[in-house]
Amino acid sequence: MASSFRLLRRLPGWVRSNIREAKELTNFLAGVAALWFVWTSAAFAIYYIPSESMQPSLEVGDRIAVSKWAYGYSRHSLPLGLGDWLPEEWDGRLAWADPQRGDVVVLQSPRADIVLIKRVTGVAGDVVELRRGRLYINGEQAERELVDERRYREHRARMGSVHVAHFTETLPQGDGRPHPIYERTDAGELDDFGPVTVPPGHLFLMGDNRDHSVDSRHFNGPGFVPLDNVIGRAETVLFTLKRCPDDSDLHCPTGRVWRGL
After folding, report:
1. Any catalytic annotation for residue 23?
2. What percent of the chain shows pLDDT beyond 70?
């Protein structure tokens, strides 16, 4: 150690100055990285929306703020997928609240190495059923009201457009908050489902774009989602990179930024 110190003193002054600056920069960057890790693990994180499954609430390109502290913490709360490196027997949750019907949650899929965002439709003990596109929870039909009909171009489609009916839906036995949904048809592949009972410690999730969402109804979806897999609650759209096409007859999505989900 002493010999290294003597060697350092023999270096030219400009070299010693550069070394000191490099050390200071390294310490600063390490501090920033530590603060970022704590912030994104315990407080908020930003997620990108890559698909159309939550339209019209969320569009491809939206960046959303997710509160990690809303429900509690599990190994899935760690950023950069670090929780995947922890042993599965570490599954568990430090919790002070559970997701409620109508919440939009970000989760680690229990069936695939992918992060999803969906709306909570059923909580533990709920009986969830769809009959010709209409949602029933514990035998009570969800109210829905037609707002308008729209056409939009799918994210990866270069030509053509999709026609949807835009509704506001209010979940029964919830907090009464309406949320928007899209329906292409009431006779689609996923429009008749169940009834199924949500097991203890699990959630039943659906996308707002009802005929274009791989959710708890779908054979390739996440199924019943353990509460331990919930990463956090989506709060709002911070900003969006979604750009409307030039076609004047297609719907141009607006009004999502800084509004509650």
Report:
1. no
2. 74
